[in-house]
Amino acid sequence: MGAIINKPSVERITGYIDGAEKSGGRVVVAGRGAKPKNFVAGSESGYWVGPTLIDEVPPHTPLACEEIFGPVLSIVHVDSIEEAVEIENKNPYGNAASIFTSNGALAEYWAKKANAGMCGVNIGVPVPREPFAFGGWNESKFG
């Protein structure tokens, strides 16, 4: 995981990570500069960003508000489910939203109230399987 299409994309993704740190986010797993241990022949000169986990991301920062399209997971802490839904629904994008909980009522509330095309419960990226197309929601892709 972590192959990136080109150098400008690597720079864009690492720019998001750098900006998150400057805004108070805490890098828990750092993927900047990561390279795979076992290269596939011919991929040695490829572009890479390893999996990255950033905690305590302020909800108003680009890392929390923009689509990164890289192996970066941003964690925003909230005090209530209502606050989480408010943050989610203020965002102009809406491809996917996930909640991690053992509370069925919270999961159902989230799935009903979050303004996203794909709502997941206890799954990081709620995407359709390959035979199902998805064109986006809100300002994501086709909208």
How are the elements arranged and paired?
Layout: E1 3-4, H1 7-22, E2 26-29, E3 47-48, E4 52-55, H2 62-65, E5 72-74, H3 81-90, E6 96-99, H4 104-113, E7 118-121
Parallel strand pairs: 4-5, 6-7
Antiparallel strand pairs: 1-3, 2-4
Describe the protein in words.
This protein is of the alpha/beta class and 143 residues long. The chain has four helices and seven strands. It has helices at residues 7-22, 62-65, 81-90, 104-113; strands at 3-4, 26-29, 47-48, 52-55, 72-74, 96-99, 118-121. A three-stranded mixed β-sheet has the order 2-4-5, with helices on one face. It has a two-stranded antiparallel sheet with strand order 1-3. β6 (96-99), α4 (104-113) and β7 form a beta-alpha-beta unit. The radius of gyration is 16 Å and the shape is globular. The model has no long low-confidence stretch (mean pLDDT 85).
Give descriptors for this structure.
single chain, 143 residues, alpha/beta, two-stranded antiparallel sheet, 4 helices, 7 strands, 28% helix, globular
